[in-house]
Amino acid sequence: MKIVRTVSELRGIVRQARTNGSALIGLVPTMGALHDGHLSLVHAARRDCGFVIMSIFVNPKQFTEAADLEGYPRQEAADTALADAAGVDVVFAPDASELYPDGFATTVHVTGPLTQTLEAAGRGPEHFDGVATVVSKLLIAAGADAAFFGQKDAQQVLVVRRMVADLGIPTDIVACPTVRDSDGLAKSSRNVRLSGADRAQAVAIPRALEAVEAALALGETGTDALHSRATTVLTAAGITPEYVAFVDARTLLPATDIAEPVLCAIAARVGSVRLIDNTLLTLPDTIEEN
Amino acid sequence: MKIVRTVSELRGIVRQARTNGSALIGLVPTMGALHDGHLSLVHAARRDCGFVIMSIFVNPKQFTEAADLEGYPRQEAADTALADAAGVDVVFAPDASELYPDGFATTVHVTGPLTQTLEAAGRGPEHFDGVATVVSKLLIAAGADAAFFGQKDAQQVLVVRRMVADLGIPTDIVACPTVRDSDGLAKSSRNVRLSGADRAQAVAIPRALEAVEAALALGETGTDALHSRATTVLTAAGITPEYVAFVDARTLLPATDIAEPVLCAIAARVGSVRLIDNTLLTLPDTIEEN
Predict the structure, then answer these.
(1) Residue B37 belongs to what H/E stretch?
(2) What does the DSSP 8-state code read for residue B132?
(3) What is the ipTM score, two decimals?
(4) How far is B282 from chain A (nearest CA, A)?
(5) pLDDT at residue B289 is higher than 80
(6) Fewest Cβ atoms nearer than 10 Å: which of A101, B48, B73, B109?
(7) CA-to-CA distance for A29 and A92, rounded, in angstroms?
(8) Is the CB of B136 less than 8 angstroms away from the CB of A111?
(9) Closest chain A residue by Cα to residue B7
């Protein structure tokens, strides 16, 4: 497995890979601190593509809290070993100055509800500008046929899909299921910053989503009632959520019932760590379109 | 010569052109109403590239005046004949709904002085968002090795170069010299909207640029003095310019003398038509870096 630091090296390697055959090129964009969620993206990429790139870049433009950026776990040696073992062909790990050299002045901005709700409130509207900008750069640099993202960041997936469709970037955006620990907590690089007590509290987030799913399975389709189920579970665990939202799974506009697929998304701070999770709610006879 | 309406058709043709040989692909982006300025871009593209695409698209997003968009000359049959005769291989002439379908929500925005001065004042800051967004889409769609722009739109060239560098779009941006009529007026699709009297007045714009160049050749390097030379010529012709600006040719920041290459740019309304023109000012021993 190769590790490259510059866009031009990456381009050369991709050109070579294409010359060596007609293999599809897959990209798994990450901020490092790899966990099983990331590795599941690599497995999906390996399944679909003949050549797999993983980018590792803690993108300063998508952090709106200096402490979060500073505290974000960085462990490149461990990450590259994990990537190698998972079958990644090349890791692209640029310095910030490679992607944002002096004089950098361009922002890719997605307007509308996709970037105005959920995480935009908690993390600031600049968050998704940072995401859209860096992902457009990574996709253009890699020239990948497909890129793999975790459904845990459901809003990010929608923003990236919108940006890719709008700019006509010829990369399929593949969303992969959220990977969970045995206690149900969604895998996240930030989980390492949870204390033991935080961790015990944090599992109320997946429990709340399960409570919503269970109520829906019993026929409760009103989002007000489902909202109560979730907040009851969270409150009982001592969590005051930043949001418990029921939104149309494609537009992120508020949903009053589960006629169309609805994303139930939760954000909450546990200890010093801000966690997010979500589940897709569909009626039993509704075909998932996500 | 082929005419295609969709990005996917264009991609197919470019893929075929690449398969047929290693010819470089050139793109000449236009809004139609072709004149000798556009055709000089095609000649430059033909010189550098084995396969030449011309896009013809009156981009609504870069117009900030409804009347200007509505009145913009449209003459596709004449344009495609001119393109064919000039050696264009394929014209890409999409409908607005192809480039901006329902739900389109992405803007490519270049921040800083490049988009805050000169045309930004007259046309609104959205103008260059429209330019950067459509050009990024055209470059990504065409996958061109080089794209050719007229130096008459000097600020546009700088904004596009910045955007292309920042997003890492692998296309060389080539700026070609302004083409002028025999009376000196820069070729522009909007010139057809000038009356005979307007036209006689409008030539004061290139005369003003020539007066600046002549004064510089005689050793006047202060931009205040050069500014006076230009406004004297314009005022004598009854033109009140929107701006006569002397700005660093790379940053567009105000310049007080011609130590570094300076762009002298003029915008003025003549009759109902807004005209722009510019010239690059360098000291005799300064190497042009534009």
Answers:
(1) helix B36-48
(2) H
(3) 0.94
(4) 23
(5) no
(6) A101
(7) 9
(8) no
(9) A168
- Residue B127 designated active-site: no
Q: pLDDT for A69-97, tens place per residue?
A: 998 989 999 999 999 999 999 999 999 99
B159 touches chain A (CB under 8 A): no
- Using a CB-CB cut-off of 8 Å, the residues of chain B touching A140 are 140, 167-170
**How many whole angstroms from its chain centre is CA B214?**
25
Helix (H, G, I), strand (E, B) or coil at B202: helix
pLDDT tens figures, B226-249: 999 999 999 999 999 999 999 999
The residues near B6 (Cβ < 8 Å, ≥ 6 apart) are B94, B98
Tell me: pLDDT of A133 over 80.
yes
Domains and CATH numbers, chain A: 2-176 (3.40.50.620), 189-278 (3.30.1300.10)
Q: Quote the pTM value.
A: 0.94
Q: How far is A7 from chain B (nearest CA, A)?
A: 8
CA-CA-CA-CA dihedral for A152, A155, A159, A164, to nearest 10: 30
**Cβ distance B127 to B64 under 8 Å?**
yes
pLDDT digits 0-9 by tens, B97-148? 999 999 999 999 999 999 999 999 888 879 999 999 999 999 999 999 999 9
User: How far apart (Å, rounded) are the C-alpha atoms in residues A7 and A14?
Assistant: 10
Contact B140 A167 (CB under 8 A): yes
